[in-house]
Amino acid sequence: MKSIGFFNNKGGVGKTTLICNLASSLAVNKKLKVLIVDADPQCNASAYLLPEEELEKILLDNKHNSLDSFYEPIRRGQGYPIEMPTIVRSERFKVDLIVGDPKLSIREDLLATDWASTRNGESRGFQTTYAIKELLSRLNNYDLVLVDMGPSLGALNRSVLLAVDYFLMPLSVDIFSLMAVGNIISSFDNWRQSLEDAIAKHHRDEGYNFQIENKDITWDLKFLGYVMQQYKAKTKGGIRQPVQAFERIIEKQKDEIANLCSAFNVNQSDVDLGVIPTLSSVVPLSQQAHAPVFSLGAQDGIVGSQYTRVSEAGEYFHSISEVLYARLFE
Amino acid sequence: MISWDNSIINAIARRRCVIVLGAGVSRNSTNAKGKRPDTWEDFLKNCVSNLTDVDHINTLISQKDFLTACELIKERMGADDFTEKVQQEYQRSGYRHASIHEQIYKLDSSIVASPNFDNIYDTYASSESASSVVIKDHTSSDIANYLLGGDKRLIIKTHGSANNPTEIIFTRNDYAEARTKYVLFYEILKSLALTHTFLFLGCGTDDPDIRQLFEDLQFTHGRMPYHYMTLPKGEVHNDVLEVASASMRIKFVEYSSDNGHEELSLSLADLVTDVEGVRFELTRNGQW
């Protein structure tokens, strides 16, 4: 199993659309067994993947084990729970899902407090910080686990990033998205240093390293790449061109991406996974239908040249999933 | 490149535009042998080449009186042979859609009208849209049902289709007969011209129906918004265009005919982006 966190500190970059459609494309075209973990307290991915009544039923069901409930025994100092969060099926996307929970935002406190004790090299802190890694370690019957994350550099996302094999960054061309990349670089650097110190302290105090799945934990996050949400464009002579105001930002963004690449020791040419156009009128329809963009049809309200948009959008997602598949499995 | 007026961009974005495809649009297509669909003139000349005693017909063709020439040719060939010839040229020749058809389709106009008998655009639009376009012609009695747009996309074959060759409007008699037999259809065209902006692509200024319709409207209703027609630069003298513009309320948009009218296709791609941009803004502001 390989796991990827979808992360950008800046919201509104098309992250949820990207993760759900890519997951579906990989499941349908590449026959992968895919699970999405909705670790964003805003739960957008859950709302997209499941019809409203179904999601409502799950959330109101007393027997439903939410992602948040996974933390309850940890909070009580009883270690990791035996029971797994409930896994549900998204029929139209052909993927499985661990539904999100708004209560996760409250867990930030527990995670932040216990990060302090992690930094002191205390086992209990490590246990809390690595709860998501423990969870992922139990999902080996999947080929791929994708984790949707909220737009913050808080404690919850830190513990997701310490758990996944890779992170993938959805980006858009705007000044805030540009600044977000800078924040990411300095936060990651900071976390890595703290973690390395913490591991050393833990080893000094306890005589062994903290382990998940019988393996020493280390900082081994890899940067898989970025997907650019395409800026508003002008077409001149049939060729798409960026609107002038964006050119400056695009240039600066390239520099930031170069920094990120050198921080993660990867080639800049390998991390450009593709683009997704912004002006896709079919995205709202796909949200309404709780279905992947590329499988929309007349029954979902598609008319006229939206059929072309549907197949175009399909090509964008499928081509990114081809690249991902090649990078991860070939 | 053509710099499109805001008024035509807005009309298309709001789906208040009828796009009219003339023979010039079909000329972008080729079949497996590299052949393009005949122009009206070429088609008539081909027919004449198999007939004898044709000097007077050739004279009519050279005077561009195609309607009369076509009438005489049809009479000489016999209706069956003539119909066969039309189908062979416009239905069975296997013309493939070109990039210009894709751009036109992407404009997502709720009504596209065409006097072409060939079914190049109709076939492309049907296959792209999972057959959800509605195709009607002058003989259809229920076109009115599809004019309001919404989730419907209508293609009107104003002179019929090679699929139904006995009903096409091609000769002088066909024109005259159609105007009385299909009065309701012409009323619909007239209402469309009053309520929509027409964008003529690959059409000439000399189609008798169009001429009459727009002249009538212009002189009945006086000041009206302009319709638009693209034309290759230099094809019609400016003075002539000015007369046509004044009498028919049509603004002419010129482009270069170099490289097989490439500039028109590319400019339409620009128009697609402009229209998408306006639609995006309209949706955001709720001001459609």
Give a description of the structure:
Chain A: This is Chromosome partitioning protein. The complex is a heterodimer of chains A (330) and B (288). Chain A is α/β, with parallel strands linked by helices and 330 residues long. Chain A is built from 12 helices and 12 strands. Chain A has a single domain (2-329), classed as Rossmann fold. Chain A has helices spanning 15-29, 44-49, 52-60, 72-75, 104-119, 123-129, 131-137, 155-161, 175-206, 244-264, 282-289, 306-329, and strands spanning 2-6, 34-39, 88-90, 95-98, 144-149, 166-172, 211-212, 215-216, 222-230, 233-236, 239-242, 272-277. In chain A, strand 7 (211-212) and strand 8 (215-216) form a beta hairpin. The relative contact order of chain A is 0.16. Chain B has 288 residues and is α/β, with parallel strands linked by helices. Chain B has helices spanning 6-13, 23-26, 40-48, 55-62, 66-77, 79-90, 99-106, 120-128, 172-181, 183-195, 208-221, 238-248, 258-285; strands at residues 17-21, 111-114, 133-137, 153-157, 197-201, 227-232, 250-255. In chain B, strands 3-4-2-1-5-6-7 form a 7-stranded parallel β-sheet, with helices on both faces. In chain B, strand 5, helix 11 (208-221) and strand 6 form a beta-alpha-beta unit. In chain B, helix 1 (6-13) crosses helix 13, helix 4 runs antiparallel to helix 5 (66-77) and helix 7 (99-106) packs parallel to helix 13. Chain B is globular, with a radius of gyration of 19 Å. The interface between A and B is medium-sized, with 19 and 28 residues.
Features:
heterodimer; A: 330 residues; alpha/beta; Rossmann fold; eight-stranded mixed sheet; two-stranded antiparallel sheet; 12 helices; 12 strands; B: 288 residues; 2 domains; seven-stranded parallel sheet; 13 helices; 51% helix
